[in-house]
Write a structure and sequence with these properties.
heterodimer; A: about 190 residues; alpha+beta; Rieske Iron-sulfur Protein; four-stranded antiparallel beta sheet; 2 helices; 11 strands; disordered N terminus; B: about 675 residues; mainly alpha; Cytochrome Bc1 Complex, Chain C; 4 domains; two-stranded parallel ribbon; binds FE2/S2 (inorganic) cluster
Chain lengths: ~190, ~675
């Protein structure tokens, strides 16, 4: 820019031009760089829009396989599983404890997933209650919490159906761990 | 601001002061931004900055892609499919990464050109020029390794070619190839290694070189365009503004390439399938399926074409074309700062660079012309050459004789024949590309099934798909196997009659459907080439029966024939939608009856027994078809009266015969059906 042109401009024009140039530079550079970042974040946030498989009844055992004396027994839950792009047919996806009231055909189902932090609840050494091996939460065979236990709630009961043919099906579902209320995972 | 001076600014200003006291960031920023640009800001200085920007874009999008990519032979294609077709915005993320990589190659060429033309490689900037060349090779290395990562057909086959070329380097070649490939076969370790190179080693090295490149650039300052006629300006904001506008323009071009086709579809009122917007994803890599449409990415096409110059020289030619000549060219480029010191050196450098770029451009043009020339060569002008070629089988002497040994005519014909060959090659390439596109689309459709992809991977899904595999097993592509005798042509197509006539066995299109059976019971068609006309059964019992007995209105009433027709289709499991249950029942009774079909054909235990004619129990159903393909001489089918059909159980695994049967019956996954079922 030579002297004569800048002389004709009102004072402050250079500063204003500089300010506009700065603003434009930041805007252009910002938009250009934020575009890939935005595309990346858009894809990265994809899991937030995904839901876990809908709860459904899964046959897990025959009535005859559950001890009649009120002692629970553990059964794997085998069902189709989807993991992102892969579909697995008939895979073990978890376990349930099934228990029959002595002398009755009514079956009670408890998810073996510990409500504290998600470990797998096992039979305590003496065989008189459940114990979680991770932080020693204890539960009665009915699933009620035995205080003091770190778990915030009792074991999660699952809906259970006994068919005419004696097939036991449970409504397989996962719940949020670590909170006092039993809330199904999304 | 000096420490100890009380600040009258707000919390942000005070935090800035606090940090400046301890880091000196203001000084750094000042140094970075307030560089003098001799002669003022210019557009021709933006290329380096756009390259840094493109690289940043690749780092950002690459990291996010990394968060969803799984490198292994069973998960690479699958995870890229998931990114592209299932994740929100995945198509945009992958599209930016894909096309920015191509933009980067273009920007590299422009940056190099600008540096050479402006003489910016001369003292004291020689080292920085060399660093730039190393950076260029690193970028090309990232482009090459990235092409494989989706593990689709085109990436896979292009990589085979590239790594085989590495293998022809004398002495170390084979070991080098094994190291890159991760073994002697392509698989998991090829992917893990390419991925580590693409996302680890190469970019890390690139960052190191880039830091030094930029540091040296700042040390020497911008190489100003001479002569300087304008006053100096500051890097900030004058040059930065130009750089930023150029970056935005680059991003806009990339977004344009991704979005323009989609926008067009929208404007035309169509619905956009976003999974198919942006970067392509081919069918999963299949080592057993050769891929005639295999080509490197466009910016490597010139090398691909260059290799053809050495065709016929064997491995020596490939060594020359792929390694020696490119190596020499790179060598000259490395020497440019030294050459530039000579009197005419700079002119030589500029001319050399322009010549290389022009040569690469020319070779790219030639490669594209070879592949696409059938689109603009008018085949009609080659009719005479084609006729002669087909008559003589391409025999030189016969051609000369046919042209009366006239040298002028022969020379002209040679040109025509060369053009014909080019047309045919291009035609075959385009057909292969189209097929590849169909297969890619189908692979995606299959991967989108509600059952998802089996743990064995997408390739397994594609291989077991009747729609993709059936035509190949049938021999439709090469006229072998079933297609060496049977036609498979919809009778409604215009040239169907010619195709039936050329076949020597029945048309199997729609086999088992009511429409097919209707043709069989048509006295005008049953003895034609569409059914038994070209077989040993031409004058057989069935043909005679259809012509003599079934035309007898006393014996066969039209509604009876219609009932048998729909009953047979029902038997095949391909029921006619207009058929009623009563009609089918009636047809079944007629088929079983001893004075009708049952006179020769066994049907559902009607007591006729096997051996006289094919068993109609479950006729054209899956089991029945698998059985007849496996062994037509079995007494359930043609027994001793089998014409020429071989027992395919000797040539084909059972699983393939089943796929063939499913394809003949039109039994394959259809996304539209699945959507319909889900809606119900
Ligand atoms: S997870 Fe079971 S007690 Fe902590």
């Amino acid at each position: 820019m030579n002297q004569s042109t800048s002389n004709r401009q009102p004072p402050g024009a250079d500063a204003r031009r500089g300010f506009l140039a700065k603003l434009a530079a930041i805007a252009c550079g910002g938009i250009a760089t934020l575009t890939p970042l935005a595309a990346g974040l858009w894809a990265f946030l994809d899991p937030l829009g995904r839901r876990s498989a809908a709860a459904r009844f899964v046959p897990v055992a025959e009535l005859a396989a559950i001890p009649p004396d009120g002692v629970p027994r553990r059964f794997p839950v085998v069902t189709d599983r989807k993991d992102a792009w892969t579909g697995y047919a008939a895979e073990p996806v978890g376990a349930v404890w099934l228990r029959r009231e002595p002398g009755s055909d009514v079956v009670q189902a408890l998810s073996a997933t510990c409500p504290h932090a998600g470990c797998s609840v096992e039979m305590a050494a003496g065989g008189t209650c459940f114990r979680c091996p991770c932080h020693n939460s204890e539960f009665t065979f009915g699933g009620s919490i035995v205080e003091p236990s770190p778990s915030p709630r009792s074991m999660d009961a699952l809906d259970c159906r006994v068919g005419k043919d004696g097939a036991v099906a449970v409504q397989w579902q996962a719940f949020l761990a670590g909170i006092a209320d039993k809330v199904a995972k999304r | 601001m000096k420490p100890g001076i009380p600040s009258r600014r707000g919390p942000v200003g005070r935090l800035a002061d606090f940090l400046d006291d301890r880091t000196g960031w203001r000084g750094l920023v000042h140094e970075a931004l307030f560089e003098r640009v001799p002669g003022g800001a210019r557009w021709r200085y933006v290329w380096g900055s756009t390259l840094v920007f493109a690289f940043m874009t690749q780092v950002i999008t690459g990291l996010f892609l990394w968060a969803s990519y799984a490198p292994s032979a069973q998960t690479a294609w699958e995870s890229v499919y998931y990114i592209q077709h299932e994740m929100t915005g995945g198509w945009l993320l992958r599209g930016i990464h894909h096309f920015m990589a191509q933009a980067m190659v273009v920007l590299l060429a422009l940056h190099l050109l600008q540096v050479v033309i402006d003489g910016a490689y001369k003292a004291p900037r020689e080292v920085n020029f060399w660093l730039g060349l190393v950076l260029m090779m690193l970028v090309l290395g990232m482009a090459l390794t990235g092409y494989l990562l989706p593990w689709d057909q085109k990436g896979y086959w292009a990589t085979i070619v590239a790594t085989n070329l590495a293998g022809i380097v004398p002495v170390v070649g084979p070991s080098l190839q094994q190291l890159i490939v991760g073994g002697s076969d392509y698989g998991h370790h090829t992917l893990t290694r390419f991925f580590a190179l693409h996302a680890g080693f190469l970019p890390a090295t690139l960052v190191l070189f880039l830091v030094v490149h930029l540091a040296l650039f700042r040390r020497h300052g911008l190489h100003a365009k001479q002569p300087i006629t304008r006053p100096d300006a500051m890097f900030w904001p004058d040059q930065v503004l130009k750089d930023a506008v150029a970056m935005l323009a680059v991003m806009a071009v990339v977004l344009g390439v991704i979005l323009v086709p989609a926008v067009r579809t929208m404007l035309a009122g169509g619905e956009v399938d976003w999974g198919h917007v942006g970067a392509e994803l081919g069918a999963p890599a299949d080592p057993a399926e050769s891929y005639a449409a295999a080509r490197p990415e466009w910016y490597f096409l010139f090398l691909f074409q260059f290799l053809k110059v050495f065709e016929g020289w064997g491995a020596t030619g490939e060594f020359l074309g792929a390694i020696v000549v490119p190596g020499l060219i790179m060598g000259v480029m490395f020497l440019m700062p030294i050459i530039g010191n000579w009197r005419l050196g700079h002119r030589f450098n500029v001319a050399f660079t322009l010549a290389i770029l022009a040569g690469a451009g020319l070779l790219t043009g030639l490669a594209l012309n070879e592949d696409y020339c059938s689109l603009w060569i008018d085949k009609a002008t080659l009719a005479a050459a084609e006729k002669l070629h087909d008559e003589t089988g391409g025999d030189e002497q016969k051609i000369a004789a046919a042209l009366g040994n006239d040298p002028a005519k022969i020379a002209a014909m040679r040109k025509q024949l060369a053009k014909l060959e080019a047309w045919r090659n291009s035609h075959a390439f385009l057909a292969a590309s189209r097929r590849a596109q169909v297969e890619a689309k189908r692979a995606v459709e299959l991967a989108g099934r509600p059952e998802r992809i089996p743990p064995t991977g997408g390739l397994d899904l594609v291989r077991r798909d009747p729609l993709l595999r059936g035509p190949k097993l049938f021999g439709l592509l090469d006229g072998k196997d079933c297609a060496s005798c049977h036609a498979h042509v919809d009778p409604a197509t215009p040239d169907a009659a010619a195709k039936f006539a050329a076949a020597s066995a029945a048309n199997l299109h729609g086999f088992g459907t009511a429409a097919w059976v209707r043709g069989l019971f048509d006295p005008m068609r049953v003895a034609g080439p569409e059914y038994f006309g070209n077989t040993a059964h031409k004058d057989g019992d069935m043909v005679t029966y259809v012509r003599d007995e079934m035309t007898d209105r006393e014996k066969w009433k039209p509604d009876e024939i219609a009932a048998v027709t729909v009953a047979l289709a029902a038997e095949a499991g391909l029921p006619d939608p207009s058929a009623t249950a009563a009609q089918v029942e009636r047809g079944r009774a007629l088929i079983a009856a001893g004075d009708r079909c049952g006179a020769c054909h066994e049907f559902g235990g009607n007591g006729t027994g096997l051996g006289t004619a094919p068993d109609l129990t479950g006729w054209a159903g899956r089991d029945w078809l698998v059985g007849i393909i496996a062994d037509p001489t079995h007494e359930r089918f043609y027994g001793d009266s089998n014409d020429r059909m071989p027992a395919f159980e000797k040539a084909m695994p059972r699983a393939q015969i089943e796929i063939l049967a499913d394809w003949l019956r039109g039994d394959w996954y259809r996304a539209a059906d699945a959507r319909g079922a889900a809606a119900e």
